[in-house]
Amino acid sequence: MSEDVATGVNDSDSGEIAEEVAVGSSVIVYPGTDEELHGTVVEDFADLAGTAVEVAGERIVGPARRWAVNLDDGGLVFVDDDSIALAA
């Protein structure tokens, strides 16, 4: 899924989402989009998320995503607060 599609899914309340979601939570990834997926949070990288890695002024890797989600279809995705919601 492209960043453009995922960005902004939960922008207005992403802080609230982060407080509710935890390892073991059943979640919807990319809620309200054609790419919506269901799964379970398996890791929270809060301490590492959002930090790009640069060496000698050259970006080696972009910022890490906060949540690792094991999808019901067997896949694994990494998303930020703005692309995740608790499943009903």
Primary descriptors:
about 90 residues, mainly beta, SH3 type barrels, five-stranded antiparallel beta sheet, two-stranded antiparallel ribbon, 2 helices, 7 strands, disordered N terminus
Briefly say what this structure is.
This protein has 88 residues and is mainly beta.
Distance between the termini: 23 Å
Strand tally: 7
Shape: elongated
Which runs of at least 5 residues are low in confidence (pLDDT < 50)? 1-12
The CATH architecture: Roll
Number of helices: 2
Order of SSEs, N→C? HHEEEEEEE
**Helix/strand class:** mainly beta
Highest CATH level, the class: Mainly Beta
How many structural units, i.e. domains? 1
Helix fraction, binned, reads 10-25%
Under CATH, the topology can be stated as SH3 type barrels
- Determine the strand fraction and express it as a percent band: 35-45%
Question: Sheet bearing the most strands, described?
Answer: 5 strands, antiparallel
Q: What's the gyration radius in Å?
A: 13 Å
Mean pLDDT metric: 82
> How do the strands line up in the largest sheet?
6-5-2-1-7
Please characterize this protein's 3D structure:
- This protein has 88 residues and is mainly β.
- It has 2 helices and 7 strands, in the order ααβββββββ.
- The strands form 2 sheets. A 5-stranded antiparallel β-sheet has the order 6-5-2-1-7, with no helix packed on it. It has a two-stranded antiparallel ribbon with strand order 3-4.
- The longest helix has 7 residues, at 14-20.
- The chain is elongated and about 45 Å long.
- The two termini are 23 Å apart.
- The model is unreliable at 1-12 (pLDDT under 50).
